[in-house]
Amino acid sequence: MSRKISEDRKAAYYVGMLLQIFGGLLFASVFVKFTMRFGDFTDFVDRTKSEALRAFTGMALMMIGGFIRGVGAKGLAGSGVLLDPERTRQELEPYSRMAGGMVRDAIDEARLDLGSEPEQVIVIKCRECAALNPESANFCQECGTKL
Ligand SMILES: [Zn+2]
């Protein structure tokens, strides 16, 4: 099972992102142009047709880009193209691990301790004064009696 996202999927992610950016720019340029030529009605129908086509292409590019980006990020099964729960789990594993890591960080931040034994401190009680001394002490820290 892979813990890392494959290079292919990373490449797909960035290609998808570029398509989205390109599509977005194309889409936006239609409106910028439209605003700039506002009130100019020469060849209005023809121009509107070509602008509409560009706007549509831009939108399509954004959608396709978003889809490719999703597949790159989550894999084919992870983004719902393939119905295969086991593969979905596998392809989303890096994210599951990330979520697990975040939970662990949060627990760490909250200073909770899960699963590890409480630290045992061995102490020696002094026969003379009943003071508790660390295991390593040779003499009582309170009264100086040899332990
Ligand atoms: Zn003592």
List the helices and strands and how they pair.
Elements: H1 7-36, H2 44-78, H3 85-91, H4 93-109, E1 123-125, E2 132-134
Antiparallel strand pairs: 1-2
Zinc ion binds near residues 128, 131, 142, 143 and 145.
Strand order of the largest sheet: 1-2
Rg calculated over all Cα atoms = 33 Å
Bound molecules: zinc ion
What's the overall geometry? elongated
Give, in order, the helices and strands: HHHHEE
Low-confidence stretches: none
Helicity range: 55-70%
How many structurally independent domains? Answer: 2
Structural class: mainly alpha
Strand content bin: under 5%
- Average pLDDT value? 84
Main sheet record: 2 strands, antiparallel
Give the end-to-end Cα distance, rounded to a whole number of Å. Answer: 57 Å
Total strands: the figure is 2
Number of H/I helices? 4
Question: How would you sum up this structure, described in words?
Answer:
This protein is mainly alpha-helical. It folds into 2 domains: 7-109, no CATH class; 119-147, no CATH class. 61% of the residues lie in helices and 4% in strands. It is built from 4 helices and 2 strands, in the order H-H-H-H-E-E. The chain has helices at residues 7-36, 44-78, 85-91, 93-109, and strands at residues 123-125, 132-134. Strands 1-2 form a two-stranded antiparallel ribbon. Strand 1 (123-125) and strand 2 (132-134) form a beta hairpin. The longest helix is centred in the middle third of the chain and has 35 residues, at 44-78. The model has no long low-confidence stretch (mean pLDDT 84). Zinc ion binds next to loops.
